[in-house]
């Protein structure tokens, strides 16, 4: 796997380092960890955000047995909008 430093400002429409991650509780973050940010709400590319919402629902399904409350919270917040949009 390529190091994330390979992607720094390489391609603004591809995979590159765009965000600096910090924790609200101020705990340290291991600098070797790699994070991927999904934009779930707000302004911007509607197609991109719809793909992000679908991705977070797949994630919720995958973590159901390990983190059931997080999975339920994600489905409640992003699953209902998905169902309503599909019905329209």
What is this entry, summarized?
This protein is an all-alpha fold and 88 residues long. It contains two helices and no strands.
Could you characterize the architecture of this molecule?
- Helices cover 43% and strands 0% of the residues.
- It is mainly alpha-helical and 88 residues long.
- The protein has one domain (4-87).
- It is globular.
Throw out a few tags for this protein:
single chain, 88 residues, mainly alpha, 2 helices, globular, disordered C terminus
- β-strand amount: under 5%
Overall shape: globular
> Structural class from helices and strands?
mainly alpha
Mean pLDDT: 84
| Topology pattern, helix = H, strand = E | HH
In DSSP terms (H or I, runs of 4 or more residues), the helix count works out at: 2
Compute the number of strand runs.
0
Q: Provide the number of structural domains.
A: 1
> Could you tell me the radius of gyration in angstroms?
16 Å
Please summarize the sheet with the most strands. none
Helix content: 40-55%
Distance between the termini: 42 Å
Q: Give unreliable regions as ranges.
A: 82-88
What's the arrangement of secondary structure elements?
Blueprint: H1 46-63, H2 68-87
Helix pairs in contact: 1-2
């Amino acid at each position: 796997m390529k190091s994330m430093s390979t992607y720094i400002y390489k391609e603004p429409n591809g995979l590159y380092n765009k965000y600096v991650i910090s924790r609200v509780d101020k705990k340290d973050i291991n600098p070797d960890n790699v994070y991927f940010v999904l934009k779930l709400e707000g302004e911007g590319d509607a197609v991109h955000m719809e793909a992000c919402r679908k991705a977070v629902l797949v994630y919720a399904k995958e973590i159901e047995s390990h983190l059931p409350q997080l999975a339920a919270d994600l489905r409640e917040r992003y699953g209902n909008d998905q169902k309503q949009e599909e019905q329209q």
